[in-house]
Amino acid sequence: MSTFDWGVGRYEDTAAQLEPAARVVVDYAAPTAGEHVVDIGCGTGNAALLAAERGASVTGVDPAARLLEVASRRAAARGLEAQFVRGEAEALPIKDGDADIVLSVFGVIFATDPRTAVAEMVRVTASEGRIVLSAWNPSGAVHRAVAAASQAVRKALGVPAGPPPFAWHERTALAELFAPHGFRVSVAEERLAFTATSPQAYVDQQADHPLAVAGQAVLGPRGESEPLRERMVAIYEAANEDPEAFRVTSRYVVASAHWQT
Question: What is the pLDDT of residue 1?
């Protein structure tokens, strides 16, 4: 999925904020008892556990060993049966046609090779199965703040900006990858609100995000962390939807792929 270690920091906090989106994705997929659900980039198990609650047989796949342990503990604490295995989106440890449903909540979008990742999702999907994934729309305050952080790290390292990422949020781009495999794609737009007591508090809460931890390792020794923090706070202050506290809304899409009949 990527060489980045999502197990550093405390992705658990971010995962808790993303759980409403996981619920939306699972609702779109509508797993039923006995169906095998594969959750790619499962992280701490949000979508996997929601599917297990519906009686599905669940396999969560993620490259971060620590997050798989967190997911396993959450499943045990809730009395749910779910298997969590280490693996990459581009090389799923799942047999051909073994999944009735393939899910990915903001997971497969980090695949280094989208074409191979889609081919893998298709490979493991059973005939008449379905694939449901979520992807961020590259707009809004969170996107601008993350872009500012990425730019600061690239500048500090002297690394030029790479090519634009694959447009997982666009139906046309997705159709170009799925259609050759005999899948049709539909896309629906959804929204997710992020809240805190203030813009400053929200930025500080994100300090334990894996990407922020990695960025701090680069910017901290150079004395460039605080200027970035101030820039991010300014972005969130300008976009704040709640004058009494803090709220920004991010748009994302839920893409559903089905075998063409």
Answer: 44
Region 232-256: mean pLDDT is 98
Convert the pLDDT of each residue in 15-53 to its tens digit: 999 999 999 999 999 999 999 999 999 999 999 999 999
Tell me, yes or no, whether 162 lies in a domain.
Answer: yes
Q: How many angstroms from the chain centroid is the CA of residue 209?
A: 13
Asked whether residue 2 is assigned to any structural domain, the reply reads no
Average pLDDT, the chain: 96
CA distances from 188 to 179, 196, 206 (A): 18, 27, 28
Question: Is residue 6 in a domain?
Answer: no
Whole domain around residue 191: which residue ranges?
Answer: 11-259
What's the rounded Cα separation, in Å, for the pair 131 and 29? 8
For residue 88, give both structure tokens: 């990459």
Phi and psi dihedrals of 49, rounded to 5? -70, -35
130-158 pLDDT, tens digit per residue, is: 999 999 999 999 999 999 999 999 999 99
Residue 5 maps to a domain: no
Number of domains in the chain: 1
Q: What share of the chain is helix, strand, coil (3-state, %, to 5)?
A: 45, 25, 30
CATH number of the domain bearing residue 17: 3.40.50.150
